[in-house]
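**Discrete fold encoding**
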Amino acid sequence: MIQVAESVDYKGLCSLARASKRYTEAAQDVLYRVVDLRPAGEDPESTFDSPTKSDLAVFLWTITQKPHLATKVQDLWFLPRSIPVKYPQLMYSGVSPVSPLIKPGSYVVKVSEKKLACDLLERLTELRSLTITALDDYLCRTELVQCFRDLQAMKSEYWITVLDKLLIHSEKLVDLLCFSKLTSIYLSHGHLDWAVVTLPTLRTLCIGSKATVELPSKTHRAFNITSLIVEAANNTLPWEFLGTAKLLVYLPNVKALTLGSSLPDGQHSRFPPPLSDRRSTNSFGNLGSFTSHYVRIFLALGRSVEDLKLTYTKPVRFCNTSKTRLEAKESIQLRRIQIAECALVDSQDLQRLEGSSPSQLLPSRIRTLVITHPRSPGPDDGDRKSKLTSWLGELTKTDFPDLERVEVVCSVGYGDGVEFKKRLEQSAEVRFLETIGVTVVIKKE
């Protein structure tokens, strides 16, 4: 029944939950597993006498009336705002998580959304993942902007952190049950509390281009974090991530490093696009935002990283492949690499670059290589053999004794033709890899 529920969309889940008692629990398990309460934008006319509507308030009322639904929430996306919101149901619930003021003659309770957020977190006892962001970049910057507490704090450069803005001190907030099982946190903007980063259950940390992490001292370490995701917004300059690269010094056990992830969830991303990018035609990866130089900095500081993953928005076009080409031969700790073909194999004009052989670019102890966005020969390329095919033929057990698996991931517009996939699978180079014990998989994204 859960498989049935997972195969339908949101409206279908709502209908399924009401269809019969037999399907209600299965539908609710899926419906409430991921809860997206991100606001789309701030209501400029919101005042205490005229509060705005709030998805967070409505959802809080729902789980107040039906507490069993709160235990089903495993992934929460939200950003509490600094505005009064409508909470009319509070008058009838018999539960008052706050001390609201009620306007005489009114049936609408007006309360700060951040106070409601604290009550919401107290009820989510099975939370595994928390995303703090909005659908609107301007709102994120408004609510999560870094600022000093007071003049005395200004001298010590003590920042107001994300959880401080929830009106509960972070040291007390992390004692809530919702943080007792948290395994991942995603932050698009603002300053993340070190108390959260060091939660013993936390494993995955995602930092957006406008987010930073509080670092109490040079001696502090978060040994619990094993996966770091650096979320690159469109047109973000690579040097803007040097602070995040230095964070790796404080995360000595990071095994998986993802650079430039767009964090897709179906057709949606967790983080909003910056205002300056809404009319931009450029996407991360087009100009190689993470050049070889900056990737080497990340790998030099993250000596524990074994899995390196570079992701791109489409299309992938590098204007100067010699600068964006991955050169990770010296990073002998790497065991898995995922990267676009054009960052390894050839140049923008499809010519093989000098020094682009696998033995010159890849670490010798690599076990898995994933190549995305393969570029099949175009109609004007004549009899040109795929550069990727010949390049794969140079992966030998002499150079890479631990190599076990090679994947080529085709997506729309990139090697998605039947002929390309068939020719690659039947090529002598791929057959050679299979004879030396390397599994080769060509699949569609």
